[in-house]
Amino acid sequence: MARIEDLTLPHRLFMKAYRYRLVDWRPGALLSKPISESKFALITTAALHLPEQPAFDLDIGGGDCSFRELPVDVELKQLKIAHRSSDFDQTGAQEDCNLVFPRDRFRELISRGKVAALNHRHFSFMGSITEPERLISETAPAVAELLRQDQVDAVCLLPV
Amino acid sequence: MCNQSVGLIASVIEKAGIPTVGLTLLREVTEKVRPPRTLFVPFPFGYPLGEPNQPDLQHRVIAASLKLLKTPGTLPRLEEFAVGNRK
């Protein structure tokens, strides 16, 4: 189990004092169709990116709020990880990218008839963002708009 | 801070009208960010679906999270992946 107590002392102290942000999403959205008829998109905060995409910027104060599009047919072994968090043990994700971006698991769900479809694109952020104002006002809404255009029915998000 | 980021991105997407479900590795962070639907998973940082190359375990976590999308009741909802489901 991951615990705040396992973080390095500076990270622990930081999180203790940190003022967590909230976004008012109420009343919430309803999945109006069965999961087996729904199209899904995945969002990972593992900072995955294609080799030809710019890596996430590890030097931006407060964190890099940008995102990368991952095509559904991406070769998982090609994906790079540009994450700055020392708390994120990348060993597992390097061994099996599905651990943080379960594209193959969702393909299996489709073949079993449990899920209807995967969107043609998915999204990656670098999760270690301490100043998320631009994430809230700009980049997450931009992803939401793309998902809306793609007529995605539901979204599954994974932290690291 | 990944767990706050997932909660905030989920909240923004939900607000735009698309239902979301997220995983969290840190329950106490998610309790503060309060995104709509979250499954707390008792795994280490970097291992949201449990273990690499363990498709059965990964599928059990995904199934438990997808179930939240159709669980009636009030939101926000934060449930825990049952340890008994691990193996």
Provide structural commentary.
The complex is a heterodimer of chains A (160) and B (87). Chain A is 25% helix and 17% strand. Chain A is an alpha/beta fold and 160 residues long. In chain A, the strands form two sheets. In chain A, strands 1, 3, 5, 6 and 7 form a five-stranded mixed beta sheet that branches. Chain A has a two-stranded antiparallel sheet with strand order 2-4. With 87 residues, chain B is of the alpha/beta class. Chain B contains three helices and three strands; from the N terminus they run H-E-H-E-H-E. Chain B has helices at 2-15, 27-33, 55-69, and strands at residues 20-24, 37-40, 77-80. Chain B has a three-stranded parallel beta sheet, sandwiched between helices. The radius of gyration of chain B is 12 Å and the shape is globular. Chain B starts with a helix and ends in a 7-residue tail after the last strand. At the A-B interface, helix 2, helix 3, helix 4 and strand 7 of A face helix 1, strand 1, helix 2 and helix 3 of B.
Secondary-structure topology with pairs:
The complex is a heterodimer of chains A (160) and B (87).
Chain A: H1 9-17, E1 39-44, E2 48-49, E3 67-71, E4 80-81, H2 91-95, H3 103-111, E5 117-118, E6 121-125, H4 133-149, E7 154-158
Parallel strand pairs in A: 1-5, 1-6, 1-7
Antiparallel strand pairs in A: 2-4, 3-6
Chain B: H1 2-15, E1 20-24, H2 27-33, E2 37-40, H3 55-69, E3 77-80
Parallel strand pairs in B: 1-2, 2-3
Shape category of chain B: globular
Which structural class best describes the helix and strand composition of chain A? alpha/beta
What is the subunit organization of this protein? heterodimer
| First and last CA, distance of chain A | 12 Å
Q: Which percent range fits the helix content of chain B?
A: 40-55%
Shape of chain A: globular
Sheet-strand content of chain A, in percent, reads: 15-25%
Q: What is the number of strand segments of chain B? A: 3
Q: Name the helicity range of chain A.
A: 25-40%
